[in-house]
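Bumping with the actual sequence this time:
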Amino acid sequence: MSRRIPPLNALRFFESVARTQNLTAAAQQLHVSQSAVSRQITSLESYLGVDLFRRERHGVALTQAGAAYAVEVLRAFEIMGHATERLRAHCSSSHLHLRTYTTFTAYWLIPRLHDFQRRYPDVEVLISNAVKDVDFDRDAVDLAIQFGDGQWPRVQADLLFHDEIEPVCSPSYLQAAGGDSERLLVGRLLAAHYRSADWPTWLSATGRSETAAGAERMQFSNSLLAWQAAQKGLGMAIGQVALLRDEFESGMLVRPFNQPVRGPKAFYLVRPAMQQRTRKVEVFRDWLLDAVRRERPIEHIGQPLTI
């Protein structure tokens, strides 16, 4: 059953008059004429079918019904006022709440975050990690880094980088195979639970599914653990090229095949479509997009295969 609520504008006028007990003072607060206030009060009384004020010689006074009604209405406006103040305080806070994935945080964001803090020391970035897509109506975050096709309802999405995958391992693991990358496909293949399709996708795209059919498989809960296992020489993992740039440059991981495969999804920075523009969101978005643009392209032999 739907609630019967009087016209909100008339209620706003009633709240002001009930609080000030004066038509002139209410008119001044509302920036309207006294006659406009009187018309709104009359309209509300007509809607409710009861007199709310007594017109007296020197002003107005609440009737018994009006006084009882005012207690609840004033409380409701006070609650709305506090809720608005809390919301505005959150939007103006220097704390930026960012949600992303554990692997993205560890391998890409943390190594670069010191640059943002150096440029904007007044903005404190609070990071939370989750795999499930963000819901800005439910999750108390300002921004999120999300993996997908970029077509999410009621959000604005900025492309960060495409999803390119290929096998990675430690230099010593490749050396133990005599430098023969094909031999690695019959060894131990490391995979991540949430990226379980990556190995079949890469093997199929490069025509190597049969070669790796008998390989031992080991699965981890996320890519971060799979890549750490690869660095320790436990096997060969399937890597997301954009997230492992630092590991390639430092020599901690190598790409035995140098044959990346690009999938249909990508990493995006997402924010609510109706989000209030705030400095903390704008500076972080600008910094992140600039950081992505400044990344030197990772060299490939030929162009990545696209699936």
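The tokens above came from a reply further down the thread. The two ends are 52 Å apart (CA to CA).
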